[in-house]
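Supplementary Methods S3. Input chains for the assembly prediction are listed below.
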Amino acid sequence: MAFYVAQFLSGLSQAASLFLVAAGLSIIFGVTRIVNFAHGSFYMLGAYLAYMMADMWSGAVGFWGAILLSALTVGLLGVAMEVLLLRRLYRSPELFQLLATFGVVLVVQDVALAIWGPEDLLGPRAPGLDGVVRIFGLPFPQYELFLIVLGPAVLGLLWLTFHRTRWGTLVRAATQDREMTAALGVNQTWLFTSVLFLGSALAGLGGALQIPREAVNLQMDINIVVEAFVVVVVGGMGSVTGAFLAALLIGQLQAFGILIFPGITLVLVFLVMAVVLVVRPYGLLGRAPATARGESHALEPPLYPAGRGLQFAGLALIVALIALPAVLGDYALVVLTEVLILALFAASLHFIMGPGGMISFGHAAYFGLGAYGAALLVEHFDAGMVTGLVVAPLAAGVGALLFGWFCVRLSGVYLAMLTLAFAQIVWSVAFQWYSVTGGDNGILGVWPAAWASPKWVFYYLTLVLCTGGVLLLRRIIFAPFGYALRAGRDSPLRSDAIGLDVTRYQWLAFTLAGTFAGLAGGLYAYAKGSVFPTLLDIPISVDGLVMVLLGGVQTLSGPIVGAAVFHGLETEMVRYTDYWRLLLGLTIILLVLVFPQGIVGALQSRLGARFSPRLREQVAR
Amino acid sequence: MTGQMLTIEKLNSFYGRAHILFDVALEAARGEVVALLGRNGAGKSTTFRSIMGLVESRRGHIAFAGQDISRRPPHEIARLGLGYVPEDRRIFTDLTVMENLEVGRQPPRREGASWTPERLFALFPNLAEMRDRPGGRMSGGEQQMLTIARTLMGNPAMILLDEPSEGLAPRIIEMMAHAILELKKEGVTVILSEQNLHFASVVSDRAYVIEKGRIRYQGTMKELAADEDVRRAYLTL
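Predicted structure tokens for the full assembly:
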């Protein structure tokens, strides 16, 4: 009994800090509609700053002063990010800000590494709260009890702020309808900046409060941002009270899950999120967004079939790709092979994000399913490469068919989070099912057939399959199926009214995208000779997103250019510097600022007329 | 100060690559009620949205109370004293009546009416009984009143009313007409867009007729009422 009470209490204290971070994320998303990946980085910075300050000053004043001051400092960093970066991007396509915040994540990673080093840092105990109290005879830290009280206290303060102050009223109004709020004379710039301050400060506070509890390290950011997203989505985006309830739920799951289902702890949280989203598509306390308002930039420009200019450029590219092995060494060929594979992966993600209008945070699932599909055949059935490459897309397609059925019932960030949940479930299966998948040892020895083992042969094989896949996807976009898909994206109601089953088209598109991602994954397995659970993990999904957004989500060539630029940059930078994340992050930020429509998007608006005959006609008129 | 409250010259607006408004010119004198008439899709709402700076791409000259507002962002335009009541009302459904009014509140101006919730409740008595009701739980007519009251909280010198009679019961339309005439008495300049010619003729001094993004006719309300040809060409279905 006493043990369970203690477990329950530690679940509550876990929930408190999770709530702080999630509340900040929820507030920021509510008003600015920005999916802020950097929120976890602010949490981590809060912890590092508090550690540093508490280390410099001693005593109770020093400790608590350090906590508060680091929260304020992180709040100001949030302001800096808004003023210097996000503010310039509010008119960019939806989700482009996500790319910018991802750049910030990379930069913060390396800055923290440079300042505080890679070691775990242990902070001091909280003065005045460093003892234990006995609960049913078992010792329980006072500090944890303090956190348990703090959670509801912060919830109360936030509630009062949002319901009893003019600022809070304006924030709630802007959460619902930014454009109308502006038309009533409210300066959004100022509102956004202040919201970023509050949200980031909450993240910083959440991080700072961790220092007596756990070691500060460089992995804090990704872990917490994923958990915080889960909490926000389970609670309902924009609902602070919902975030509180969800944090309680997740906290208890983590406390008790390990006792009841030790085998699936990693995935329990995501399983619960999937169940909540399937039952309540907008989270516990969330409501269906009243038709998205004031997002005039969300107007998607039409896509045009390639004009003669682009056809020529595409042909020239293919000819160049065919000719390259003659001049390139093995290393360059390997990199180029990877770029081709990633281009197909990015194109398949773009297929559902662009024409399909569905954002996926978990596209790695299908890449990984393809890779594992091939590798498992090799491992357990001694299958050959051709069989593997046939099975890879099929395995991923079946996975996408299954998961997609649930996902396409949702939309926006909820859909994205459900895709992430499924990806994490697949990942944890691969990670924990040692007897079949080898766990984190992966599966080795997935080599191409003898005839395809020379680097140049495998390169040509990849070239044929990836070019074919990309062209096929392109063809589908301009087929009636693609028109129906885009119609469903632009106006689901009208599409329904003219007899298009939008959900069904989206489901099919999701399955197709998964299938092509699986083909890419299968090729990747043979290119690398091995598969690991990391192929299914969040960073691969994020890489896909970055490639699509970097290239330009509203263009068809975007994902290919994005894949080449991103993978090329990454490969080169890793070679030359330890601080490649910093460089890559800064490059992404710079690209985002210079090309707020994505690289190809920017090229199009400059050279568009030359590349597409129909566009030229329109401009001429 | 001259008598002109709003002067629009050569206004051209675009949605993406689509050209919506063509050289629209429009004027409203201080204290005047002007009707902008036209069928669905003629460009009435786009004209209002362009004036408020809510259309991404607009060209032309827009002067409000002697100041050029053609390049200003929406919140600055609103703060200069130009109120906007959108066609679809856009009440903040999660906020109560009082909170909706609070969002619209701006400091009083040197000249012109200064509105308080109490004065607005006198103008729209229905609202007085539902101060703490969320906007989402009000009838269409009540929402229409609230959206006008919300805009008046900014103490505008002029308001743009986009189809104020649309979808309302006859009794509510009468109340709207009464409210608009009250505003006129207070010295507020009003431009309202309408398809309902009868409603417009009750409250307006002058009228413009817009079709396919071009102004086709302008004159006093009386002249328009007498001009069967214009009415048939641009207004009747």
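The domain at 4-235 of chain B is CATH 3.40.50.300 (Rossmann fold). Chain B has ten helices and ten strands.
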